[in-house]
Write a structure and sequence with these properties.
The protein is mainly beta. 4% of the residues lie in helices and 54% in strands. The N terminus is likely disordered.
Length: 756
Amino acid sequence: MRMSLPRKSQLPVSLLLVQSGIYSILALFACSVHAQTAPAGVGVETAQVATPAPAAGNPPDPAGDAGAAVSTTDGGMPEIVVTAQRKSERLQAVPITVNVVTASDLEERGIVDTRQLATAIPGLFINDLAAALSPYLRGVGTNGVNPNSEQSVALYVDGVYYAAPYTNLQSFSNIERIEVLKGPQGTLFGRNATGGVIQVVTRDPSFDPHFEGTFGYGNYETISTSVYATTGLTDQLAADVAAQIYDQQRGWGRDIATGGYAHLSSNGSIRTKLLYDLDDATEFKLSGDFSRYKNTEDELRLPPGVRNVAGQLSPPNPYDATDYVHTNNYGPGFLDVTSYGVSLNAKHDFDFAQLVSISAWRKATGCLCVDTSAALAYYTDAIAPVDEQSFQQEFQLISPKGSELDWLAGLFLFSNRAMYNNPTISGSAFDFAQIRPYGVQTTRSASPYAQATATILPKTKVTAGLRYTLEREWYYSSINPGTGVETHFPNQTQGMDRFTWRLALDQELSDDIHAFISYNRGLKSGGYDLLSPGTPGFRPEILDAYETGVKSELFDHRARLNLSAFYYDYKDIQVQSVPSFAVVTTNAAKARIYGFDLDSEVRPIDHLTITASASLLYGKYLSYPNAVFYYPSPLQGAPHPFNATGNTTINTPKFTGSVKATYDLPTDRGDFSLSTDVYIRSSVDYDPTNTSRGPGYAMLDASLKWIDPSETYSVEAWGHNLTSTYYYATGEATVYGFAIEPGAPRTFGATLAVKY
């Protein structure tokens, strides 16, 4: 057991000094570069017409909100357009720290779902607990897995908010790009978020017929296939469909209870979109999606050599599991979740503004079946059918392009109902009684918001935004302790009405260098613990963020360097603990988190692209006197109170970074592309007492791709975790010990693709 005492810090002053130094150095460097090299006009390819590059403050005109990457013709880097502020803008001109992963990046890195995004985004940590993904950005996140456990890092797909954590596992088959916005988003994004936003933008249908298909095969008898097809149906109506299937038929290890495979997974999804282009001013997009995820991949176990509650040693093979679910016929635990939904995005351009309406309905159902004790005994079985559905409606008014005052106003309405549908808890820990806790939470929320950006000097802009959130939550709960007598608890309700905001100053130091400083407040809603009937609710958490950054493009657009520094004041943190079979949430802590981000890309020679990103994080609990200490093995002692003040915040690796190099070689026999990617992450603490820790690791990926001269066919050989590094995909300190789930071992295979 380790403890560190808090120390006084002059961090705010240090940050100001660092900021001033960054600004000064880059400003002098930029002046030197521009003094030595006259800025050359950069031609861009848009609709096969060469035009001058857009001015630093004016984005190119992308086709709708899907954005576009505008390629340069002189060997420089493509211009990236994002919708980080709910409208199309150049990435380098947005005064927010945003990391963008394009469709080609996803392909080169072999990223096929949201679990793998962390290898491409510095400062992103994804805790994969029972396939309820809990993303952490810069140390801010939520590790709750209940159906009502909305995440501190919110997920949006085409502007639609995904509320349930079990729907965060998204597979990628028709992605335009993924934007990761760091820091609290307290103004423009629907449900608000303390940690940030992961925004997935899918392709829009095309009126020109197009087809893409892939088939892949990898070790562990893994089959993957995907198709994407789009075409115009009439002069005004176009449609597309994207589908994918992933099936792993051989596990990474064995389930000791059954002798069968452990760590298996399969998923499938289909998404379709209709685009109705009524006229130059009016557009409708109707989308529908369906996905199913089933696995035994997330089987809990203790680290090798640690004794579980039954006195048994964990298997020496780190990929073997010890789930023993009696009510599942002594089989392994599993998760089987289906999610689906529909949405309608409508736009109309008036003379004074653009009106946008986003309507969406979503539902997730399924079952989590797990032995939370990770023991080869009928000790604690949890059979928890999940059920969540939500409706959201958003209206936006966006200022017309070219207006002197850039503004956006909106209203977000949200309704959600989440529950475990007749769960059952049983086992020897409860004298074999069939305990049936029941809880359902209903949420209603309304949030008007507005944000405006004004030019106060020729090269200086100021942004101010404000959101008001009015919310009410209702909680009904009961429990049948196995005696046949059900106890109903009094209905509970809680609510909030709070303001959040954004202030930012954006300075154009030169045509290719922007600097910004901002202050943001974000919040995450409170709620109730669904498997803990009768317990009081937990309050919203609040985060104040102070950030400064520099975005630059140098050497005639052959190098991009973005830096940012931030300081977080984090209050009423929602902290989860696992005292039994259920996750219990309390507002127990106050913390500070600060650090630095670097994101760079350089093209030193034609056909070679090198990207490097890094994040430095430092997080400490300033006040956490009522934490709970859990031993790595339950046989070492019972949980007891612990003062975690001064300890490192959970899921906050001090360093994450990656370096990717891609070399493209065009030949008469087709184009070859070689890509290598190295990802490094330092150790991470999984509980506030800092006794349950995941070791740091480095991982190597590589791929080699060939595209035929007609660009119709391609073949790619790929490998992930080529060094076969063992690491934890997640960790959780519980009353039954330090439960872990291993990450994927070495995987490799080949993919054949066709497009026309």
